[in-house]
Amino acid sequence: MLTGQLAAIVGSGHVSTDADVLAGRSVDHTGRYRGHASMLVRPGCTEEVAATLRVCRDAGVRVTVQGGRTSLVAGTVPEHDDVLLSTERLRELGAVDVPERRVHVGAGVPLAEVQRAAGAAGLVFGVDLAARDSATVGGMASTNAGGLRTVCYGNMGEQVIGLDVVLPDGSVVRRHSRVRSDNTGYDLASLFVGAEGTLGVITGLDLRLHPAPRQRVTAICGFDDLDALVDTGRVFRDLEGIAALELIDARASALTAEHVGVRAPVDGAWQLLIELCGDTDLTERLAGALESAALSGEPAVGVDTSAQQRLWQVREAVAEVLGVYGPPLKFDVSLPLSAIRRFADESGALVATHAPEAIPVLFGHIGEGNLHLNIVRCALSGDRERDLYSAMMSLIARCGGNVSSEHGVGSRKRDYVPMSRSDADITAMRTVKAAFDPDGYLNPAVLFG
């Protein structure tokens, strides 16, 4: 009966109960976590999303929302034979409003399409990720994604200036404004950004765009000492024109050299990728900021586009090799810069104790203290994996960090939220959830479980 009702809403070709299809949709991006779904539904517009939610709620079935399925914390993995609601058909891409520097897009539009549309209009979109070809803007807003340009433009929340969202009861909120200053009532758009689909389904977004810089300079610097790299990162973090500030460890560079032929152009146990953007030549500013840095050798500098792309390849190739030995165990962590050295040392010791054959690879956005620890060649499972995961979460808390920075909580980290949020804070969040979704049927595995 439910299948027929949903087919009547979205069309029979957009509802599937095929076991192979559901199995492929019930595993997370890393391949480590699997769930169970009863049906896949792919609405084609906001109204179809609303009708789908109303039918599912009335039938008493749970719904897990899926975008590009690039979550690294099992945020789109169903646990209760859920109906999977995919936003992949919400692909509207409006005309770029150049004078107002904004564009309206459907939640299912991949990031790369937004970037191309902005670029064709002489503008840039402020968020960039390695998964740009598959990550969708709706999912990115739901997790408040950051990425490679956060130090310059901020997270996804800074780019969202309006949205369409379907609430769990099937009603639709359309929050759009053409003015830049709008202080009328609650800032509902911000409430849904970072809510990981627990409060409603984002179906469309107004996105802020930015002027394209006329000049760029990119550099990779090598360091023997991590503290020296962090000190240099502090200098660049607050420098005018900073556009990217990325940490890469030598273990990551060794993997990219071995498996994809991308070698680091500098020596050192740690590497720092720096990019400055602006309207004038920035090479002197780069040189001045590096003058007192404790480098292990001369930096590699790219001024022209092809040289810059070669340097960026060093950073982006890391994502290509993380799964070379099977699904890695991933940690997305936000740390005070002063704690990064301690975390690097103690996390390495934890890996050596729990998984001696594994390779800990550390990289990420040093400007925000947002680091990604990937444990490659990690064969742990069951209780042994949980023991390492729990020990790492405890280390993050002892270092004064947050258990989630830009990937969200999903279902993988829900048991560790109390390490970063007080009981009163969690109670307040649960109250908000209950107000929007009293039946608790929407994204039930995420955040609270």
How would you describe the overall organization of this protein?
One of its GO terms (biological process) is respiratory electron transport chain. Its EC number is 1.-.-.-. InterPro entries: FAD-bd_oxidored_4_C, FAD-bd_PCMH, FAD-bd_PCMH-like_sf, FAD-bd_PCMH_sub1, FAD-bd_PCMH_sub2, FAD-linked_Oxase-like_C, FAD-oxidored/transferase_4, Oxid_FAD_bind_N. GO terms for molecular function: FAD binding; oxidoreductase activity. The chain is an alpha+beta fold and 449 residues long. It has four domains: 2-86, Uridine Diphospho-n-acetylenolpyruvylglucosamine Reductase, domain 2 (2-Layer Sandwich), CATH 3.30.43; 102-211, Uridine Diphospho-n-acetylenolpyruvylglucosamine Reductase, domain 3 (2-Layer Sandwich); 215-321, 2-Layer Sandwich (Alpha-Beta Plaits), CATH 3.30.70; 329-423, Alpha-Beta Plaits, CATH 3.30.70. 33% of the residues lie in helices and 21% in strands. The strands form three sheets. The chain has a seven-stranded antiparallel beta sheet with strand order 13-10-12-11-15-16-14, sandwiched between helices. Strands 5, 6, 7, 8 and 9 form a five-stranded antiparallel beta sheet that branches. Strands 1-2-4-3 form a four-stranded mixed beta sheet, sandwiched between helices. Helix 12 packs antiparallel against helix 13 (382-398). The longest helix has 17 residues, at 305-321. The radius of gyration is 22 Å and the shape is globular. 48% of the residues are buried.
